[in-house]
Amino acid sequence: MYRKFLVVLFLILAITMLAAQFTRSINETIEVLLDGSAIITRMEFVPHSDLYKVYMMHYDNIRKNKAAFENFALELSKHYYFLYGTTPTFSLNDVNVTEDSKGITITIKMKVPGIVRYVDGLFQIIRKGFENEKIAEKLMPKYFENEIDGKFFESMFLQSEKNTLVTERKIEIILPKGSDFKIANTFFTKKEPRSWYVDTGGVTTYKAQLETTERGVVLNENTVTNGGAPKNLLDKETSIKALDSLRDYTAFAIHFANKEMVPEKLSKPVPHKIADDFSGTWSFSVSSDELFSCTFTCQTLSVAPKITVT
Fold first, then answer.
1. CA 74 to CA 57: how far, in whole Å?
2. DSSP 131
3. Fewer beta carbons below 10 Å: N end or C end of the chain?
4. How far apart, in Å, are the Cα atoms of 109 and each of 90, 169, 273?
């Protein structure tokens, strides 16, 4: 329902657009606490534009409509669950929307339990670790669905390759004071996780760079979406490479020690409701000079991500 509402707004507003570049910035601070939980502060800024109008209508809707807010919270918490394996919570009171002459800023504060695990004598924060290979096998199709589906909704708004949406995202993870840490791979990544690049051959390119600070890490991302067709997903061989790159994108782990933290007192991760939803078929189609359609099929006992393009 949340995405259907946005599609209606996109179709209403996009027809008036000429060639244009839209921008937005997202700054996230993840402050890790001694009990293994974290406070996430997410600030999103959109300057005045047709995209600004979409955001204004959207946030006006979630303020007035309880069901719309619940769907919004479900979608946003799902994003963090895919990344960190636990589900943040927040209420409408934790959402602050401000406007000025430059644009709109949306600030959301979230509490997330169990973002830290204790494995093999070290505390760990794993981004896109999916806990283990078995869980990853089940959740990966849902992750692809969530990521690619979202980009195609953006593409519907943009409509043409001449129009682009540039998203600058900065994520800072701050460990508790006194932490001694290092960057490590997840179970499915092989090269040192410091930089990434993904190209779908149209629609979206992803770039990211990871840096360390005195108390943690900073991840800088640049994502560019246009209204074209994803040519690298239209070809069987290039689609496999593109999906592998998307799977590995910004996947890393932080291993650390801290004398003030007690393994037995760590808060527990909370699964998202999507964690138990492994059945069904997801599909979409987009027309932009070419027709692109994609289908994911998965079953409860046997999960295999599959793309069919025509």
1. 19
2. S
3. C
4. 7, 17, 21
Name the amino acid, one letter, at 180. D
How many C-beta atoms lie closer than 10 Å to residue 7's C-beta? 12
Cα 302 from chain centre: 25
| Inter-residue contact 154 to 14 (CB < 8 Å) | no
How far apart CA 101 and CA 52 sit, in angstroms, is 12
Tokens for 92?
């409408």
Model confidence pTM above 0.85: no
pLDDT tens digits, residue range 35-84?
999 999 999 999 998 888 888 888 889 999 999 999 999 999 999 999 99
82 vs 113: CA distance, rounded Å? 14
Six-digit token pair at 185?
């791979």
Q: What is the dihedral of CA 70, 75, 78, 83, to 10 degrees?
A: -140
Chain mean position to CA 288? 25
* Tokens 């059945």 -> residue: 279
- Amino acid residing at 213: T
Given the structure tokens 């997801």, which residue do they identify?
282
What token pair was written down for 144? Answer: 């692809």
Q: Are 94 and 110 in contact (CB under 8 A)?
A: yes
Report yes or no: 190 and 134 within 8 Å, Cβ to Cβ.
no
